[in-house]
Design a protein that fits this description.
By secondary structure, the protein is α+β, with helices and mostly antiparallel strands. It has ten helices and nine strands. Among the domains are: 44 residues, no CATH class; 101 residues, Band 7 domain (Tetrahydropterin Synthase, Chain A, 2-Layer Sandwich), CATH 3.30.479.30; 83 residues. Helix content is 57%, strand content 17%. Keywords: Membrane, Transmembrane, Transmembrane helix.
Length: 360
């Protein structure tokens, strides 16, 4: 019974020793091995064997890229304003031995190094530059941290500024400035819109004026062409029908009153040809040309018949012709009187006095 128990105990001890001698390292992990307290090697991923009771695992590291977020740190800018800056670091362990033995606590070391470097960088910038130069701050931080943590077996891949919080009073001033800038841009856009609208309206008015002027020009040209054709037809009709001086004189007198019908006519000069035109009209209504001197008595005596004179017996033909001549003369006198009345009325309308020569 006792040998059996001893064998079981020996088997258990052997299994325990064998299991302690085997180490399986996961992927992207690294184990530092010490032998009697001294670093010997670093185990990589896979199956590894140790000497039981001699070798032991000191530290385990994750070789993947890791993220470290620091607490918001108060930093003073060049213009003596305190801002709270929150940073994010992306780092990766490249040498497990150095990370374990070159620095006691690499996380704390990276945090403190970030704070001191950040204060040095922000201290040389004013607030406005700090808020607008995040890329420059990130680059300078990464350069300083990567240079220092290289001997620790740690590589800084990226450094990002997560937040920059200025004091509340500065925030209010910045908000007011932003509102003022937005109002300014809105006023500029509104003014630009009004300017464009006025330009478009002026351009439309210009185009309208040009089109109206072109329309008036075409209308004036058409009216002038119509009047020219009308004058040409009248001229051709007068010359074709061979109008004499009597008709032209009558049309001349008929046109004179229309000269005073304009609203702006305040002065009218009666032409000197009016008397001659009246005479022509008078001769036209009398049916005779201007009378010449009467023949002498001697010629009448010679032309008289040699027969006995008939006294007291008037010639009927001579009497009727004399009566017709008298009626024609009276009609001519009436026409002349009417023409003179028209001329006087026209002169009274425009405030002028006819030529005294026309009264005779």
């Amino acid at each position: 019974m006792e040998p059996t128990i001893a064998l079981i105990i020996l088997a258990v001890v052997v299994v325990a020793v064998a299991l302690s001698a085997i180490r399986i390292v996961p992927q992207a992990r690294a184990y530092n091995i010490e032998r009697f307290g001294r670093y010997t090697r670093t185990l990589g991923p896979g199956l590894n064997f140790l000497i039981p009771g001699v070798d032991r695992v000191n530290t385990k590291f994750d070789l993947r890229e890791q993220v470290f977020t620091s607490r918001p740190q108060p930093v003073i800018t060049e213009d003596n304003l305190v801002v709270n800056i929150d940073t994010v670091l992306y780092y990766q362990i490249t040498q497990p031995r150095a990370a374990a033995y070159e620095v006691a606590n690499y996380i704390q070391a990276i945090d403190q190094l970030t704070v001191t470097t950040l204060r040095n960088v922000i201290g040389s910038m004013d607030l406005e530059r700090t808020l607008t130069s995040r890329e420059e701050i990130n680059t300078r931080l990464r350069g300083v941290l990567d240079e220092t943590t290289g001997k620790w077996g740690i590589r800084i891949n990226r450094v990002e500024i997560k937040a920059i919080d200025p004091p509340p009073t500065i925030k209010e001033a910045m908000e007011k400035q932003m509102r003022a800038d937005r109002d300014k841009r809105a006023a500029i856009l509104h003014a630009e819109g009004e300017r464009q609208a006025r330009i478009l309206k002026a351009e439309g008015a210009r185009q309208q004026a040009i089109l109206e002027a072109q329309g008036d020009q075409q209308a004036a040209i058409l009216r002038a062409d119509g009047e020219a054709q009308a004058i040409e037809r009248v001229f051709q009709a007068v010359h074709t029908n061979n109008a004499d001086a009597k008709l032209l004189a009558y049309k001349y007198l008929e046109t004179l009153p229309s000269l005073a019908q304009g609203e702006g006519n305040t002065f009218w000069v009666i032409p000197g040809e009016l008397t001659e035109a009246v005479k022509n009209v008078s001769h036209a209504f009398s049916g005779n040309a201007p009378q010449t001197e009467a023949p002498s008595t001697e010629k009448e005596d010679e032309a008289a018949p040699s027969g006995p004179a008939q006294i007291g017996a008037p010639d009927p033909a001579h009497s009727s012709s004399a009566q017709a001549a008298a009626e024609a003369a009276e009609a001519a006198e009436r026409a002349v009187a009417d023409a003179r009345d028209d001329v006087r009325r026209a002169g009274a309308k425009i405030g002028t006095t006819p030529d005294p020569r026309e009264e005779g």
